[in-house]
Amino acid sequence: MVFKFPRVASPIFRRSFGFTRAVYKLQPSKKLTTPNGITYEQPTGLFINGEFVAARSGKEFEVISPSTEKKIVDLAEAGKEDIDDAVAAAKAATLAWEHVSVDERAGIIRNIAALIEKHKDTFAAVETWDNGKTLGMSSGDVEGVIGCFKYYAGFVGKHFGKVVDVDVDSFNYTRREPVGVCGMVIPWNFPLMMLAWKIAPALACGNTVILKSAESTPLTALLFASLMNEAGIPKGVVNIVSGAGEPGGYISAHPEINKVAFTGSTATGRKVLEASAKSNLKKVTLELGGKSPNIVFDDADFEQAIESVLIGIFYNQGEVCCAGTRLFVQAGIKEKFLEALKSRVDNITIGDPFDPNSFYGAQTNRQQFDKVMEYIDEGKNEAHILTGGHRRDGDGFFVQPTIFYDVKNNHKIAQEEIFGPVLAAITFNDVDEVIKMANDTPYGLAAGVHTTNLNRALYVANHLKAGTVWVNCYNVISHHMPFGGYKESGHGRELGAEVLNNYTEVKAVRIGQISSGIGVHK
Ligand code: NAP
Ligand code: MG
User: Fold this and answer.
1) For residue 430, what pLDDT is reported?
2) Do 201 and 182 meet the contact criterion of CB atoms below 8 Å apart?
3) Candidates 210, 263, 325: which one to mutate for ligand 1, based on the most atoms within 8 Å of Cβ?
4) Is 465 helix (H, G, I), strand (E, B) or coil?
5) What is the distance in A from the centroid of ligand 2 to the CA of 480?
6) What's residue 11's pLDDT?
7) Long-range contacts formed by 144-148: CB under 8 A, 24+ apart
8) Mean pLDDT of successive 10-residue stretches along the chain, which has 522 residues
9) Residue 66 neighbours by CB under 8 Å, 6+ apart
10) 80-98 and 245-253 helices cross at what angle (nearest 10)?
């Protein structure tokens, strides 16, 4: 006898679920060649219900490469009516996706990982072209994205409810059910990775999604969308739109979206929360900004601490939410440490992100570049420059690695998120003083501690108000561990098993006894 596993037949769930778009125009892709010579098809439309379509308004916007300041391509720009279409498609697909068998859903998510792997060189090159980060960085991001989809495929069907003993007369259990239509709004610093952190767990829990990429970095999200049909994602389950801030606002306020996952600045995060409160009280998770301390004690492994501080601030051009932007260095080693750090930093090359010798590339857009340069100018009035302090001559949004020293923790450059390659070095004397200063900020995303004294490491790690604490390392993010912030750095956690709670509702079921007839127990 052959045992048949119960499953939803593929032809049923691969069709379009009652969603029809009244007026639409398909939008063709464009053949492009990246600066490192990879020719590929770049989708240019909005990905709604399994197709790339033009915006209903017909509007488009330009995508600029920050390392050359030259245009790459024009893309469809989503408006309110396109968001309505995408939400309708996602809503229509909800029931069917929820009922796809556990094995089949896990298989589809694994297909996504395999397809990204197949095209990983293209993904990395396009990310670098669009974002300005080095090719090495983009390749690392793509590997992380592949791992993230594999990891969450493994959770499908394993985020269980419980059987709960309440009394002898009833049967009580909880179920974890999908939330439904999930909106996602992401920033430009890790475009593909931020997409993966949200879409992978959302799909694993049986939700449908509509994601808006950042205006400055929309290309890899559309490439990702172009793989959905081949992976076996039913139409309408994943919808991806491009555009400026406005569509993010529509998503936050949409009455038919059940949850929003937002990553971006604290200022925009407040608006998302407000839009939820004023619309349907959708669930909101927020991954926001930071001003993280990186603490070096005088007993730290000196060379290792130098590398950690360097990676902590200059990785990804400093465009990292958890960057170690405030260096706290103990007074006894201050001079030696800053001198060694300067000589290490003065030996790194910044420039063409496709050049393997570049340590970091260009800031992602002009607005961000101007903001960083303004902070550097203000910093010159507050503290002293150890190195850097200028833009790089020529085209492209390149900023020299910049270190300020003799900074006070209440200075503007030590309190506000700059989001660029700018480090504020502050001196401290003892453990409790540095813990107090480290926690004295509205943010609480991450922190670093460098010491060879285990007792001290434990004491400091347990007293820092931060979602992540790295001891003797920095910026080592893994999708197996929860990530998110205390205080104004956010609400909720992404990654790890923790994120699954954000994408599920808990239902409590009590089955009582029937008080007459066959159901009576004796
Ligand atoms: P942002 O300006 O807040 O933008 C983030 C996203 O929100 C973009 O897609 C943006 O669209 C969209 N948006 C703009 N206005 C909106 C509105 N009123 N309602 C809803 N969405 C809106 O942030 P960013 O400058 O792109 O990114 C940098 C920030 O992200 C930093 O503060 C960084 O710390 C934070 N970040 C946090 C994490 C974390 O995990 N905690 C990770 C990465 C980055 P446009 O692109 O069109 O403006
Ligand atoms: Mg760009």
Assistant:
1) 97
2) no
3) 263
4) coil
5) 29
6) 36
7) 144/193, 144/196, 144/477, 144/479, 145/116, 145/192, 145/193, 145/195, 145/196, 146/113, 146/116, 146/117, 146/120, 147/113, 147/479, 148/193, 148/196, 148/197, 148/200, 148/479
8) 38 48 83 98 98 97 96 98 97 92 97 98 98 98 98 96 95 97 98 98 98 98 98 98 93 98 97 98 98 98 98 98 98 98 97 97 95 98 97 91 98 98 98 98 98 98 98 97 98 97 98 72 55
9) 131, 132, 216, 361, 362, 363, 364, 365, 366, 369, 396, 397
10) 50
- Is the whole model's pTM more than 0.90, yes or no? yes
| Ligand nearest to the Cα of 217, by number | 2
Q: Which of 182, 205, 321, 322 is catalytic?
A: 321
Alpha carbons 514 and 520: distance in angstroms, whole number: 6
Amino acid at 456: R
- Cα of 422 vs centre of ligand 2, distance in Å, is 22
Distance CA 316, CA 187 (A): 14
SS3 for 419-439 is CCCEEEEEEECCHHHHHHHHH
User: What's the pLDDT at 517?
Assistant: 58
**Could you confirm whether 303 is annotated as catalytic?**
no
- Residues contacting ligand 1 via CB (< 6 Å): 185-189, 212, 214-216, 244-245, 248-249, 252, 263-265, 268, 271-272, 287-290, 321, 417, 419, 445, 485, 490
Which residue's CA is the nearest one to ligand 1's atom 43?
Answer: 321
CB of 198 within 8 A of CB of 499? no
